[in-house]
Amino acid sequence: MLTIGELASYAGVTVRAVRHYHAKGLMPEPLRDRSGYRRYDAGAVVELIRIRTLAEAGVPLGRVRELLQADEEEFAAAIADIDKRLRAEIQERQRHQERIARLASGDHLALPPEVVEYLDRLRALGVDERIVQVERDGWIPLAALSPDRIPQWMARKRKQLTDPQFVGFYLVLGQALDCSDNNPLLVGLADALAAYITQMASEQGEDYVDDIDIEPPFAKLMDTLAFDAVPPARQLIELLKNRGWTGWTKLERVPPCGVRPQLGRDNKMQHSRREQ
């Protein structure tokens, strides 16, 4: 006959666990002997090991009680179900592990492979890492908002990066990041960029210039994200605005003086209410 301590030791559990199983009704609690100790037989060791094994497999203690009372066929079916659940949990943990690995790799966590490839290409071309980070932070919400349009957008971006003049705009902006306001680099960049955009609009049409084509409120949010991270970008857009174009995320022509910009649907409704 075994004491509770010996029973726990043979079964690989703690005395506290044995008492917990008693309290839950999983194991009958034997009567005390004349010395006031509870004594257990070999069958209790086997039963305790079965309880421990099921509990360690993640089976709720209430379910353990049912399994211990089940016949052989019911027990086998229940074990098969438990095995299926454990396999599913293992697969889910493996997916979590993959996500953690992607987190360690940075860009891959929240961006499609095409965008990661595009960012790597910017780095290979020598674009300042701060600009690459702004691009990355901008593409994260864009990819979440319109994942189906990413291939189309990236095809356009890859084509742009084959143009040395376009890449030069990135490089000049990178040089201007650490310069003071009203730096000649930004002024020259605004001149060259405005001429480039105007020529592109003339050859391809103004619809081609707005290569992202998203709603203005979202574009404004994206612009703010870029301007906060790279302050010279805000000054560049102001310079560009004086040259007929505006917008960091959503590039468009500045309306001629005296021409009111087209109102969006929500603004139209608010404007109508004010006039009533």
Structural class: mainly alpha
User: Strands of the largest sheet, in order across it?
Assistant: 1-2
- DSSP strand content: under 5%
Distance between the termini: 94 Å
Instruction: Estimate the helix proportion, in percent.
Output: 55-70%
Largest sheet descriptor: 2 strands, antiparallel
Task: Compute the number of strand runs.
Answer: 2
Shape: rod-shaped
Q: What are the segments in which pLDDT stays under 50 over at least 5 consecutive residues?
A: 263-276
The H/E string reads HHHHHHHHHHHHHEEH
Global mean pLDDT: 82
Query: Using only CA atoms, what is the Rg?
Result: 34 Å
List the total number of helices.
Answer: 14
Short description, anyone?
With 276 residues, the chain is mostly helical.
Q: What do you see in this structure?
A:
By secondary structure, the protein is mainly α. The chain is 68% helix and 1% strand. It has helices at residues 4-11, 15-23, 42-56, 61-69, 72-104, 113-124, 129-145, 150-160, 164-176, 184-204, 206-209, 216-229, 231-241, 265-275; strands spanning 245-246, 252-253. Strand 1 and strand 2 form a beta hairpin. It is rod-shaped and about 105 Å long.
Observed structural traits:
276 residues; mainly alpha; 14 helices; rod-shaped; disordered C terminus
What is the strand and helix layout of this fold?
Layout: H1 4-11, H2 15-23, H3 42-56, H4 61-69, H5 72-104, H6 113-124, H7 129-145, H8 150-160, H9 164-176, H10 184-204, H11 206-209, H12 216-229, H13 231-241, E1 245-246, E2 252-253, H14 265-275
Antiparallel strand pairs: 1-2
Helix pairs in contact: 1-3, 3-4, 6-7, 7-12, 9-10, 10-13, 12-13
